[in-house]
């Protein structure tokens, strides 16, 4: 965990709490919560009355739906931007550069079937990274792959030459970059979700990916810190 992750997580929690404070009817939410709690108490009070318990269950579902409806606007207003932010943070904290001596796979996903000429496609790497295999074609999944290996810290561009087009992809080994883009894509929607690299303009290639080492430990810290921040701000602000 880094100081930047702590600050970003706390800021996201504060922003979410601010949205909920200003985009919800706090009095109505408080009443809805009390009604949910009252329905739960009926389970204990009428434990020996199956009919009353059944009615309480139906009422509890209705009260939860009412509470969800009250919270829905704030959830959408804060949830959609936060989901996008989490995707960007994953490019910062979710992947690690290749370590020196580590092998990785570079894969190009094609939009159509493999052609005979694709066997002559090539991959150039920056100094410090070697290409260890010729292109391996997967006819079923329409993919072409190479194995690369980092021999020293390096950062630069992979250059894939395919069907007369050259497509570049960032690669990093040893030294940390701010954003570590695992995949460069042709899709406009995927580019909006992951704008770390420009869109691929060649329609024949759907995406190019480097299988960097993945870690999900950061998301637990993000959720814990942002939730604590939101609770503190929501209670005392």
Which tags fit this structure?
single chain; 237 residues; alpha+beta; 2 domains; six-stranded antiparallel sheet; three-stranded antiparallel sheet; 5 helices
Explain briefly what this protein structure is.
The chain is an alpha+beta fold and 237 residues long.
Q: What percentage of amino acids are in beta strands?
A: 15-25%
Distance between the termini: 27 Å
Give the number of helices: 5
The number of distinct structural domains comes to 2
Order of helices and strands: HHHEEEEEEEEHEH
Number of strands: 9
User: What is the 3D form?
Assistant: elongated
The quaternary state of the protein chains shown equals: single chain
**Overall pLDDT confidence:** 88
**Helical content class:** 40-55%
Largest sheet: 6 strands, antiparallel
What is the C-alpha radius of gyration, as a whole number of Å? 25 Å
- The residue ranges in which pLDDT falls below 50 over 5 or more consecutive positions are none
Structural class computed from helices and strand pairing: alpha+beta
Descriptive overview:
Helices cover 47% and strands 22% of the residues. It is α+β, with helices and mostly antiparallel strands and 237 residues long. The protein has 2 domains: 3-94 and 218-236, no CATH class; 103-210. Strands 1, 3, 4, 5, 8 and 9 form a 6-stranded antiparallel beta sheet that branches. Strands 2-6-7 form a 3-stranded antiparallel beta sheet, with no helix packed on it.
């Amino acid at each position: 965990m880094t100081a930047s992750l702590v600050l970003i997580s706390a800021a996201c929690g504060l922003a979410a709490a601010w949205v909920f404070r200003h985009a919800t009817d706090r009095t109505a939410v408080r009443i809805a919560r009390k009604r949910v709690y009252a329905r739960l108490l009926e389970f204990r009070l009428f434990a020996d009355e199956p009919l009353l318990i059944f009615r309480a269950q139906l009422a509890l579902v209705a009260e939860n739906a009412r509470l969800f409806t009250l919270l829905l606007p704030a959830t959408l207003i804060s949830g959609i931007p936060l989901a996008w932010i989490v995707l960007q943070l994953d490019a910062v904290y979710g992947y690690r550069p290749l370590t020196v001596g580590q092998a990785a796979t570079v894969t190009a996903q094609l939009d159509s079937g493999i052609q005979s000429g694709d066997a002559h496609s090539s991959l150039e790497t920056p100094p410090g990274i070697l290409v260890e295999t010729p292109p391996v074609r997967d006819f079923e999944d329409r993919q072409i792959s190479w194995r690369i290996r980092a021999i020293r810290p390096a950062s630069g561009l992979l250059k894939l030459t395919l069907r007369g087009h050259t497509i570049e992809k960032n690669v990093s080994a040893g030294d940390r970059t701010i954003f570590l883009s695992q995949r460069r894509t042709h899709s406009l929607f995927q580019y909006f979700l992951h704008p770390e690299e420009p869109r691929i303009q060649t329609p024949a290639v759907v995406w190019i990916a480097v299988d960097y080492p993945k870690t999900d430990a950061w998301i637990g810290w993000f959720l814990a810190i942002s939730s604590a921040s939101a609770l503190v701000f929501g209670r005392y602000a």
